[in-house]
Write a structure and sequence with these properties.
The N terminus is likely disordered. The chain contains 13 helices and two strands, in the order H-H-H-H-H-H-E-E-H-H-H-H-H-H-H. It is mainly α and 350 residues long. Strand 1 and strand 2 form a beta hairpin. The chain has a two-stranded antiparallel sheet with strand order 1-2. The two termini are 40 Å apart.
Length: 350
């Protein structure tokens, strides 16, 4: 009895530090996995307290509508990141798709049911060209997609001599375009289901679910990540890395064209300045996705959360009348905080 009584406190004493270490590790893991969600919840609460109108359903849907294009483009970037690539041309593809959709209706008099497939096919072709440069000609992905970005940025200006496209457009030959936007096309960017949920938000949700299933629940998705992780091993295992990379870039550019369609349907014109910030915002959303749930790899769910994260922050700052020249700084500071929580806190010492 004496021996047992004497040993028990010693055992408790030796076990306690281990428990403390385990608790700290668990807290650190929780912080890393939920850093973005914690900051997102904090922003929602903070903005709602500072400006009650922020939390009403109309404003929340406005935020989702505003980030829908960025989320769709970011999802495309995520797929190329999965295969170890990177697509710098998505912003230019989206902007060119805005011009292409407008030109098809204003100049060629096409309706929505002809314009949408045409523009999506345009995006798929650009993705195929990117893949040929990268996979067949062995051009580094950053250089290939950067060259395509410059090519498209110039190409979109040629048919209209640098003018934006709207009804009554004067063409380079002096004639006047007599077409108009198809009302059915405009519903893509302007109509809300039941007067609440914008169509663009529904499209974003459909893209997110489709890509999530593809990348996380199918053999093709596993092979995409395997290609990015170890291309040689994937090839030796019998998978066609050429086809997988081609698929990734075609998906990326097609989604960029879908984003361009939504922009064109929202603004109702082919603006030559459209898509200016889409590249950086979509890449930021995709990279923030690495921090979501501490996955530390490209993932569609994380990208969508990243896009919403940035959208909530910018909308809240705007509603609080924060000076526009401070918004990028604040956005960067918050993002640095989220990434620091994910990659720094809770990491065990060697």
């Amino acid at each position: 009895m004496t021996t047992i009584d004497n040993d028990t406190p010693a055992k408790v004493a030796t076990r306690q530090p281990g428990n403390d270490s385990f608790n700290l590790s668990a807290i650190g893991a929780f912080l890393r996995a939920g850093a973005v969600f914690i900051l997102l919840a904090a922003m929602l609460i903070g903005f709602a307290v500072a400006e009650p109108a922020f939390i009403n359903i109309g404003n929340l849907m406005s935020i989702l509508q505003a980030v829908s294009v960025v989320a769709i483009l970011g999802a495309g970037v995520t797929v190329t990141l999965a295969v170890g690539g990177f697509d710098l041309s998505i912003g230019a593809v989206a902007a060119s798709s805005v011009m292409a959709a407008s030109y098809a209706m204003i100049v060629w008099h096409l309706n929505a049911f002809a314009t949408v497939p045409l523009v999506l096919a345009f995006g798929a072709i650009i993705g195929l060209l990117n893949a040929i440069l990268i996979v067949r000609l062995r051009v580094p992905d950053l250089l290939a997609t950067l060259a395509m970005m410059f090519l498209l940025s110039g190409l979109q200006l040629i048919p209209t001599a640098g003018r934006s496209i709207s009804a009554g457009l004067i063409l380079p030959d002096g004639s006047k375009a007599t077409g108009a936007y198809d009302p059915a096309f405009l519903t893509i960017g302007r109509y809300s289901i039941a007067g609440t949920v914008p169509v663009s938000v529904v499209l974003t949700l459909a893209v997110a679910i489709g890509l999530f299933v593809l990348t996380e629940r199918t053999r093709i998705g596993r092979l995409l990540f395997a290609t990015g992780g170890n291309e040689i091993a994937t090839r030796l295992a019998g998978a066609s890395t050429v086809r997988l990379k081609t698929l990734a870039y075609v998906i990326s550019s097609t989604l960029a064209s879908l984003g361009g369609i939504i922009i064109a349907a929202r603004v109702g014109r082919g603006d030559v300045s459209s898509g200016g910030s889409l590249l950086m915002d979509s890449v930021a959303a995709a990279l923030i996705g690495f921090a979501v749930l501490n996955l530390r790899r490209p993932n569609v769910l994380g990208t969508i959360v990243g896009a919403v994260f940035v959208g909530v922050l910018l909308n809240g700052l705007t509603m609080l009348n924060a000076p526009y020249y401070t918004q990028d700084f604040i956005k960067g500071a918050v993002l640095v905080g989220a990434l620091a929580l994910t990659y720094g806190l809770g990491r065990s010492n060697p």
